Amino acid sequence: MTASAPLAALGRGLKTFLGDVAEGLFEITHNGLALVGIVVVVSVALLGTRPDLRQQGEQRLAEWLSARQVAALGITPEPTAIERATAANPKDLPREQANVALWISKKYRVAPEPVSALVAEAYEIGGANRVEPTLVLAVMAIESSFNPFAQSPVGAQGLMQVMTHIHTDKYQHFGGQYAAFDPKSNLRVGVKILKEYITRAGSVEAGLKWYVGAANLASDGGYAAKVLGEHARLNQVARGKSVSLNDNTPALRAATVPSEPAAPSSDRTPVKVATL
């Protein structure tokens, strides 16, 4: 036997070993792909018969893609943000409320979705307090033109221009006085105050005089008439009547401070407004 014979035998053995390994890998890969194929087929069949599972899968995929996009944009996600949003689809409201929401949106040039949420809230809270929802919305229209960040020189704040420093206690349930700028919190507090004033004064018109801070004055400068005028228009809209957007409504349209017409909410002073 020559010296090269062992080397040749070793080469043949190594070649055989590598061949066996390659064949084994092929079999494993082939069987693995077949198994993956079977899993895919079974999964597709299962999803076809279980729409709920398909929906969950699609939702998770959408969340994953959204998370990737957010990460790429460098935005820190807040899962509860949508829960805090004051917005609703007008199409989801009862016809009466939808009519009111869309009319207000066009007239006051505000987005229909936030207004829809406020209209729905006004109907719920107004009904619970036995105050007509369209009256509540009329007060918001005249007080702030549906600007939740409106503020008068003397401290009337938010949608319904509540004198926050006088009614601080009423905001404690909502987390403190800064809740005055949360639309729904301001609406709830405003309705509570309005209801109390109407009950105390004995009529809606007299209650509005108290609300504007003119309880101790001979005249409210036409404030109640403006609110009641808008209230009447909103009632017509709710019933499906056609009401012109160009109606000469004396609503206060200032972005942050109510404008002039006599005795608006900006003229309120703490000594005029009775506390509850």
Provide a short characterization of the protein structure:
With 276 residues, the chain is mainly alpha-helical. It has helices spanning 4-49, 51-73, 81-84, 95-108, 112-128, 133-144, 183-201, 204-211, 223-238; strands spanning 156-157, 162-163.
Describe this structure in words.
The protein is an all-alpha fold and 276 residues long. It has helices spanning 4-49, 51-73, 81-84, 95-108, 112-128, 133-144, 183-201, 204-211, 223-238; strands spanning 156-157, 162-163. The chain has a two-stranded antiparallel ribbon with strand order 1-2. Helix 6 (133-144) packs across helix 9 (223-238) and helix 7 packs across helix 8. The longest helix has 46 residues, at 4-49. The termini are far apart. Residues 251-267 and 269-276 have low confidence and may be disordered.
Give a quick set of tags describing it:
2 domains, disordered C terminus, two-stranded antiparallel sheet, 276 residues, mainly alpha, Lysozyme, 9 helices
Please outline the helices and strands:
Blueprint: H1 4-49, H2 51-73, H3 81-84, H4 95-108, H5 112-128, H6 133-144, E1 156-157, E2 162-163, H7 183-201, H8 204-211, H9 223-238
Antiparallel strand pairs: 1-2
- Give the helix level as a range of percent: 55-70%
Major β-sheet annotation: 2 strands, antiparallel
Uncertain stretches: 251-267, 269-276
Distance between the termini: 116 Å
Q: Identify the CATH architecture of the largest domain.
A: Orthogonal Bundle
Total E-strand runs: 2
> What is the CATH domain class of the largest domain?
Mainly Alpha
Strand order of the largest sheet: 1-2
- Kindly state the mean pLDDT as a whole number? 78
Overall geometry: elongated
The structural domain count equals 2
Any idea what the radius of gyration is?
34 Å
CATH topology of the largest domain: Lysozyme
Structural class: mainly alpha
Name the assembly state: single chain
Approximate strand percentage: under 5%
SSE succession:
HHHHHHEEHHH
- Count the helices. How many? 9
